[in-house]
Amino acid sequence: MRNISKRINTVEKQLRLGQHENRIRLLPPLITCAPTNATGKDFDDLGAVETWITYQEQLQAQEKANTELLKDNSNSLGAPIIIDLDIEKEYQAREQLKGQSNA
Fold this sequence. Notes:
Elements: H1 2-15, E1 30-33, H2 40-46, H3 53-72, E2 82-84, H4 87-102
């Protein structure tokens, strides 16, 4: 009988029963659509994808939605962050930003 109790205790420690971690586990962003209409010159002009305006806007919006989701479901991983890249939309966003800073 003592041997069985010892085995149960060992299994419980391994499974960490009753010990819930309250860490927020976020998944890395997933870029779903690499811009097919992009040329090498576009990437030279626009720089790294992580610096794009449209990338940052989508990332911030989805991270905010995930934060709200995780408030209610702390044990959830959150929704995957899916970012859709488009060269034309990025150029338009940069033109708008340039126009706002000139005004």
